[in-house]
Amino acid sequence: MASSLDSQPTANGTFAADPASHIAKKPKILSTITPAEILSEFSHHDPSVTRINNGSFGSCPASVLSAQKQIQLQFLCQPDDFYVNHLQPGILRSRTLIKQFINADHVDEVSIVDNATTAASIFLQQIAWGFAEGRFQKGDAAVMLHYAYGSVKKSMEAHITRAGGHVIEVPLPFPVTSPDEIVQEFRRTLQRGKTGGRRIRFAVIDHVSSMPSVVIPVKELVQICREEGVDQVFVDAAHGIGCVDVDVKEIGADFYTSNLYKWFFCPPSVAFLYCKRSVESSCNLHHPVVSHVYGNGLAIESAWIGNRDYSPQLVVPKAVEFINRFEGGIEGIKKRNHQGVVEMGEMLAKAWGTHLGCPPQMCSSMIMVGLPACLGIWSSEDCLKLRTHLRDKFAVEVPIYYRAPKDGEVGPVTGYARISYQVYNKPEDYFKFRDIINKLVFEGFTCESLSNEKA
Amino acid sequence: MASTATINGTTTAADPISRIPKKSKLPSTPHQFITLAEIVSEFSHHHPSVARINNGSFGSCPASVLAAQKEIQLQWLSQPDDFYFNHLQTGFLRSRTIVKQLINADHVDEVSIVDNATTAAAIVLQQVAWGFAEGRFQKGDAAVMLHYAYGAVKKSMQAYVTRAGGHVIEVPLPFPVTCVDEIVQEFRRALQRGKMGGRRVRFAVIDHVTSMPSVVIPVKELVKICREEGVDQVFVDAAHGIGCVDVDVKEIGADFYTSNLHKWFFCPSSVAFLYCKRSMESCDLHHPVVSHAYGNGLALESAWIGTRDYSAQLVVPKALEFVNRFQDGIEGIKKRNHQAVVEMGEMLAMAWGTHLGCPPEMCCSMIMVGLPACLGISNNEDTLKLRTHLRDKFGVEVPIYYREPKNGEVGPVTGYARICYQVYNKPQDYYKFRDVINELVREGFTCESLPN
Q1: Widest CA span of chain B, in angstroms?
Q2: Which of B45, B53, B79, B396 to mutate to test the interface with A (most CBs of A within 10 A)?
Q3: HEC sequence for chain B
Q4: What DSSP line would sit under A48-71, residue for residue?
Q5: Are A268 and B5 an interchain contact pair (Cβ–Cβ within 8 Å)?
Q6: Residues B384-407: pLDDT tens digits?
Q7: Which residues does chain B have within 8 Å of residue A121's beta carbon, measured at their own beta carbons?
């Protein structure tokens, strides 16, 4: 199952071949991975936990972890040799593979970073310098979605608001019934933002929002940005590669980031940041942790930010190898995950008498399922408490989202569970969740009964 | 040492982090000290045929700490949400508390854990950049660094200070250096020169132990001079710090102090701390990678910068446990490393007819040893080529520094090897190096013969 990693150290402490170099670059389907093999690959997952939250922290198969360990051992064995002879070629190899997957024009456009949170900081720091250096004026605007990830919102505050920029949030409906709702809100917000002659310097658009999780029509929104004269467009696809279709040229954004440890079977943590070459500001991007390679372009800067464990960034080839053991490779996985999560979501919604948070075509491998109103979820705190209760009492891991009811709603559904489906999941996971909620309903459980314990 | 998972997916109290002793516990009787055989075993993952006399670059980590790290990684992989909610922050607090005790900080709030000193420098310098952007500093205000500041720090000064409008001043330092006073005088001179014309010196970054060439800098005296000369902020870069030199942050008196723990404190790659004196809270330090923890103080911001493997930062208790298996703990290790590196350095200098780059009291567990002039090291490229040659041909790992000869010097020593001594080293490592160089000399080898 795991390829033998024949990095043989020479007598002088150098390594002739390194662990990553021999891994097949093109899909080579010898035989499709079997359910038993999948089980084995994820046998390190706690067997007693119903793990239907792949979206938060991702997952990594044993064969990739094993390859990662080989790389770590190689470093520990002779770090100088590793640093001088293997680190940079390994990172280049990962970048090249990613370039192919995302249809970027040139490997220079692909940098590897820790996670989308880091990528956002890199992009936003460049904007902050824009204000400091007079390219942007105080009051110039930046747009983000209301459902932007918490870290991104804070990053906007830390870099943009602090620098004098005006941050505009696009209100989005939830539940949502069609992409058009989102498109209309976005256009409206941009136009409102421009009133009084204000310049909109950039927009941050989620490809798949986190909570609540919905697939955003990024291609259309990027187009609107161009039409409305937005200078730079940054797509935050924390949930991206392995979850939705990622063709950066098709999507057309200036910058695009996605994690590889969430849906692409890499260990924590590794992500990429794509910067379109033709965009002038691309060359202004710097990694905030400055090392001696500062000024050589973001890709080179990100490949050395001081001494640390770069192994997650070097096992991308091994993750690709794992993916190619599945029928249809990553496309097959995406399709089956999507079908799986829609089927399970509909099953749950039916069992509970609730509904999905969006139509099936607006979800990827995650979907929002309404929880029975009688559970009495009345705040974000209730969501956290219920989530903890589900984890501690029933070993079900699933994040819950609070939707504030609108005026006049009767018996509103205020809580939505975000279920994920990844290759290691099975229907039993969702049947268990279904039955637990049904049991809680049967017992007359409400969130009020939960103590104010630390989530 | 497996952490037992409960049926509900939470872990029992017996998780890998909590089982580690929280307080430093010195062994009570001598026979409990680690044995030579145990040390060999702990570092058996090091390449057996490499003379690894460069602990300074990438550090080293014993097998027992690596095993503890692996437990933590497995715990995360097994149930990441539970780890995130129930174990991550307590683990961080435990590491920070141990560091606070080791460095004599007043309060654990003053201690943040970051990846490495390079990151710490970016954190401190980013706030200097905001100082310029937000009008607290004026264009032309100065920042001071040593000529021998680490390459990454120099670039960081360029990226954050020069770019923001600051004027960067380098303090020239002699090498070889003969006494502490040479450094003190140069520093004071540079500060006074910097202040001419009424210029404000806003910031100084001072190495505790320079990297190349490696010399222990009299930081306490330099910090005092900074105070006397009205420097606003003093940042000590002790990438080589804890486990290498004495680190008492109150004694040293700097506003910010960073040190790696993966170099000389037996932690895995990578973990470091950044100490920020409480009175500097107004400086508003932030981690450049902004997460939802933004605004809660640097320590909390640094403890969550998005999903990643934090295990290296959580094994500090286990590293302390390892350190305490040695007689007199970290103090004993430091002392013995220092004695050994001086002894080995003097042995080499004598064997090659050269000299040390500084007096023994100005080195810690690293020392610069002159290489025979006949090797013909005439620039930086030669040092890299020679280093590669030593690695590839002879299995010796040692960085080499190029010192530009002064006018009129006859047969100058231009190349210096930076040798390190850590607990896994033995005299044979240095005899091997000695003999390799002697062989090269005998063969009439020069760097000119090496390909580009």
Answers
A1: 78
A2: B79
A3: CCCCECCCCCECCCCCCCCCCCCCCCCCCHHHCCCHHHHHHHCCCCCCCCEECCHHHHCCCCHHHHHHHHHHHHHHHHCHHHHHHHCHHHHHHHHHHHHHHHHCCCCHHHEEEECCHHHHHHHHHHHHHHHHHCCCCCCCCEEEEECCCCHHHHHHHHHHHHCCCCEEEEECCCCCCCCHHHHHHHHHHHHHHHCHHHCCEEEEEEECECCCCCCECCHHHHHHHHHHCCCCEEEEEECCCECCECCCHHHHCCCEEEEECCCCCCCCCCCEEEEECHHHHHHCCCCCCCCCCCCCCHHHHHCCCCCCCCHHHHCHHHHHHHHCCCCCHHHHHHHHHHHHHHHHHHHHHHHHCCCECCCHHHCCCEEEEECCHHHCCCCHHHHHHHHHHHHHHHCEECCEEECCCCCCCCCCCCEEEEEECCCCCCHHHHHHHHHHHHHHHHCCCCHHHCCC
A4: TSEE--HHHH----HHHHHHHHHH
A5: no
A6: 999 999 999 999 999 999 999 999
A7: 288-290
pLDDT tops 90 at residue A5 = no
Q: CB distance A269–B306 less than 8 Å?
A: yes
- Residue A370: helix, strand or coil by DSSP? strand
Q: Using the 8-state DSSP alphabet, how is residue A265 labeled?
A: -
What are the chain A neighbours of B274 within 8 Å (beta carbons)?
Answer: none
ipTM: 0.93
Q: Which of A227, A246, A243 is closest to A235 using CA atoms?
A: A246
B-chain residues near A116 (CB < 8 A): 306
- Using alpha carbons, list the distances in angstroms from residue B28 to A142, A347, B20, B36, B330: 62, 63, 18, 19, 15
Out of A273-282, A357-366, A398-407, least confident range: A273-282
Interchain contact, B119 vs A289, CB within 8 Å: yes
- B270 → closest Cβ in A83, A268, A307: A307
* Residue with the larger pLDDT of the pair A285 and B26: A285
pLDDT, position A29: 54
Residues of B in contact with A48 (CB under 8 A): 5-9
Partner-chain contact A53 B152, CB within 8 Å: no
Q: Which residue in chain B is spatially nearest to A154 when comparing CA positions?
A: B292
Q: What is the pLDDT of residue A10?
A: 75
Q: Do B10 and A13 touch (CB under 8 A)?
A: no
Average pLDDT over residues A443-452: 92
CA distance A43 to A320: 20
Contact B391 A80 (CB under 8 A): yes
Q: Give the distance from residue B181's alpha carbon to the nearest chain A alpha carbon, in angstroms.
A: 30
CA distance A409 to chain B (A): 31
**Separation between Cα atoms, residue B394 and residue B381, nearest integer Å:** 19
pLDDT at A331 over 80: yes
Are A132 and B164 an interchain contact pair (Cβ–Cβ within 8 Å)?
yes
Nearest chain A residue to B115, by CA: A308
CB-based contacts of A321: which residues, under 8 Å, 6+ apart? A3, A23, A24, A63
On chain A, the residues whose CB falls within 8 A of the CB of B293 are 154
Q: Which residue of B has its CA nearest to A131?
A: B133
Tell me the pLDDT tens digit for each residue of A91-103: 999 999 999 999 9
A378: pLDDT strictly greater than 50: yes
- Cross-chain CB nearest to B290 (options A46, A77, A158): A158
**Interchain pair A292, B269: CB under 8 A:** no
What are the Cα distances from residue B422, in Å, to A269, B37, B174? 31, 15, 27
Q: Are B298 and B283 in contact (CB under 8 A)?
A: no
Alpha carbon A266 to chain centroid, angstroms: 12
